[in-house]
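Exercise 3.2. Students should predict the tertiary structure of the chain below and write it as structure tokens, then compare their answer with the key that follows.

Predict this chain's 3D structure.
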Amino acid sequence: MKFYKLVSIAALCAASAQVSAQDVLTVKTVGYELARDIANATLLECRKQGYQVSVVVVDRSGNLQVALRDELAPRFTLEIAERKANAVIMSGINSGEFSKSRTDIKQELNHIEGLIMMQGGVLIES
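Answer key:
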């Protein structure tokens, strides 16, 4: 009986190793330098157009990579920018497009921590 259990466990371990070896994901992500450059260029362009803003770049999981706040932008703009970026991560499209396409649940989505349904979040694709 012990031999049978040992053989079953060994077979299960071998099958598990074969499955996990094939379960590898390859992803592209924006590195720090590029995220910083995107944020800086965005902030400068907004300033040139007369807007004092905060710019946030998050990774594909919504983790903060870079946050910049123009010196005249209110501190609240940092949170708003991050919440817009998270809406992009959740939807896969620019936040303004998502907001317009989901007017049926727009108000409910605004109650989810970390999201806001406003124009301004832009998808970065490679």
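Discussion points: The radius of gyration is 22 Å. The helical segments are 2-22, 32-48, 76-91, 95-101, 106-109.
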